[in-house]
Amino acid sequence: MTEIYLKANSDGKVYEAEKGNLKMETGDAVLFESDQCQETAVILAGKNSDDGAEKCGVETVKAEIIRRLNDKDEEVIRQRKEEALKLLPRCKEVVNKHSLPMEMADVDLSYDGKKVTFYFSAPGRVDFRLLVSELASIFQKSIRLQQIGARERTRSCGGIGRCGEDLCCRRFLKGNLDDVTMDMAYTQNLAQMGTTRCMGACGKLMCCLKYEVEAYDEGKKKLPKVGSKIKTEKGEGTVIGQNIIKSSVNVELADKNRLEVKCP
User: Fold this and answer.
1) What does the alpha-carbon distance between residue 161 and residue 168 come to, in Å, rounded to a whole number?
2) Topology given in CATH for the domain delimited by 74-148
3) Is the pTM here over 0.70, yes or no?
């Protein structure tokens, strides 16, 4: 049978399952069963695909796919979220009781209600073994605590970005949020404005920096490189800057005058 990878919606863990006779494609939402509970997930890819778990750099756990999600499942998922949020205040009480340096951010309840995942942020590592034991006793469920970073914390809280829209990470971004680099800001000529211009609500580089970086890379290849010499209508000059959007370069002439030159 063909084996495929799926990523759990609750904690992002990657599972390996047999596709069987089910007709499924990458991105399909499914219900699956692990050794702990029933959860929802998204199909990543086939085992031999370049988009599989090996590319994600994670170990997989065996699971069994039950079926694709349907409209009725969406209602169950909504109810589980409502149930989960009711558990968060009690969890916070227990955290305060143990004086743990944790800030609770969000909570998930598995499809069958057997497993609770609490998400928290903290300045460092936290020994929460006693906390897990007490929470399991209180809620009578399997308990999982997952530490999250600044990006995930902001995604769970939500907010408004510089563009005036709801945060992308809250609306539609999935998976890893940490693959944005300063090089992307330099490519789009944003880093020159200062690092704060490139920061999002989470205090990290804005996720949207990666949306157009490929187009900028292609555009830069069509323009004369910074530092190169080009001929203009006012004589030869040195390229001191590129404007990818306008397909032009800024040139400094021998007399130190500057002009913008449109490139074909």
Assistant:
1) 8
2) GMP Synthetase; Chain A, domain 3 (3.30.300)
3) no
